[in-house]
Design goal:
The protein is an alpha+beta fold. About 35% of the residues lie in helices and about 15% in strands.
């Protein structure tokens, strides 16, 4: 199970495992539970509190009445709550450590700062920040829908393309505000009944530029290993390109049911070079739009310099593919050299979009 979650199985074994999980409710539930719990034991996040050491919140937190537990992670718990002042349902994230350390408190503060500056339909909205019993809490909009980890891949590529556009727009909004998510994965995105997809859980976020912050006592490498970009696994700092790699891996998984390894030098389950990605995607996902396949290949390039410069470029390409329809002509295919960034065939405007500021 750990090998499956970490993406260390060969492609054939991955496919068999996911096909079995799609037909076996017990195994599917186990995979969902493990993914909701932030993956295998090797994940480089703060560990959950020891059994019995968690703080139990009161039934009412200010004007919010707790209804039921939605999920628990290493640093906090999320409850469905009723906002008695507005008569609406909200998601209330609480620090439940009995003795919160500086790193946990800093994480809540950073998440609040990060999410409060992002106002976008594809990012879960923050309503309020508060404190109870000396512990911080965050009040989010409640989205009734399916977490992406609850879906049963492989999904039709057209559906994945729709999800891709929404997630790329949400990530673009975050990056434009100087926020790196650093933990893009199926467990941190939710699909509403109307089809809107929203990013959430910015607990590991950091800022770029002059406001760059990290948890004072946290690890230098954070996130879920099987969705980390290769350079981040090796200890390099997170960048917009590493967020885009994780997004590409999430979309690749939804299309194929396979989570390839991002570990440098992995013997099994690794992705081919970019020039082999279109062939691989065509084999795994018959009929996939070649531009969509090439786009995923650019996101998943091992060399960060071969990926999109930032989310603006990814959004532009995904929106173009979505507008082109499901049966584009040969002239609609976008070559990887153009998708990556500035090149001999890109116009000045395109090159500026793909490079991004400061390039």
């Amino acid at each position: 199970m750990t090998a499956l979650l970490e993406g260390r199985l060969a492609m054939a074994a991955n496919s068999l495992a996911h096909r079995h999980a799609a037909e076996c409710s017990a195994c599917h539930a186990l995979l969902v539970a493990l993914a909701r719990g932030d993956g295998p034991a090797s994940e480089l996040r703060s560990p959950p509190s020891p059994l019995g050491a968690a703080w139990t919140p009161p039934e009412e937190v200010d004007e919010f009445r707790l209804v039921r537990l939605l999920g628990r992670g290493g640093m906090g718990a999320v409850y469905l709550a009723h906002d008695t002042s507005t008569n609406r349902r909200v998601a209330l994230k609480l620090c439940v450590a009995r003795q919160p350390d500086a790193g946990t408190l800093a994480s809540f503060a950073i998440e609040a700062r990060a999410i409060s500056r992002i106002k976008h339909p594809n990012v879960v909205a923050l309503h309020r920040v508060g404190e109870v019993g000396g512990r911080p809490f965050l009040v989010y909009e409640y989205v009734e829908g399916q977490c992406l980890v609850e879906l049963r891949p492989p999904l039709p590529w057209q559906r994945v393309l729709h999800i891709a556009v929404g997630l790329a727009r949400g990530l673009r909004a975050a990056h434009q505000r100087g926020v790196l998510h650093r933990d893009i994965k199926p467990g941190n995105a939710i699909l509403a009944p109307d089809g809107t997809v929203k990013l959430f859980d910015f607990g590991l976020a950091t800022f770029v530029g002059a406001e760059r912050l990290t948890s004072p006592s946290g690890p230098s490498v954070v996130g879920t290993p099987r969705y980390m970009a290769p350079e981040v696994r090796q200890g390099a700092g997170a960048t917009p390109r590493s967020d885009l790699y994780a997004l590409g891996l999430l979309l690749f998984e939804l299309c194929t049911g396979w989570v390839p390894s991002s570990r440098p030098g992995a013997a099994h389950g690794a992705l081919p070079p970019e020039d082999g990605m279109r062939a691989l995607m065509s084999e795994l996902v018959p009929g996939i739009d070649p531009s969509f396949a090439a786009t995923l290949g650019c996101c998943l390039a091992a060399d960060p310099g071969e990926r999109f410069a930032h989310a603006d470029a990814l959004c532009a390409v995904l929106e173009h593919v979505a507008r082109s329809g499901s049966s584009p002509g040969a002239g609609d295919w976008l070559p990887p050299a153009l998708l990556r960034g500035p090149g001999a065939h890109a116009s000045e405007g395109q090159a500026g979009l793909l490079r991004g500021p400061g390039a």
